[in-house]
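cron nightly-structures :: item 1 of 1
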Amino acid sequence: MKLRLVAALMLSLISFQAHAVVRYLVQDMTCAEVRQALERDGVAILYRQGKSGAALYDRFVDEAARCPAGYTTATERITVADTDECGVAKCISARRFGGNE
């Protein structure tokens, strides 16, 4: 019993680092501002209101190292205040491109 209590105490002392993912409403941001935000934060949820009124969102990263194992990045073009073609990186499964992972 004491061993379990000590183990539970030790586990509670371990610091787990939790990162909140920042969200940005991009319809009023320029492409440069979106890219700067990704460089600063590393990972972000970018969202905007679609033509139907529904929220459109996805997770974007500044580099492939922020993707889970077996994933890589692909450039996706999103609509922002100053362009419909703002290229940002998104994690996708490496298998989509013939990867073996």
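cron nightly-structures :: done
The first strand starts at residue 22 and ends at 25.
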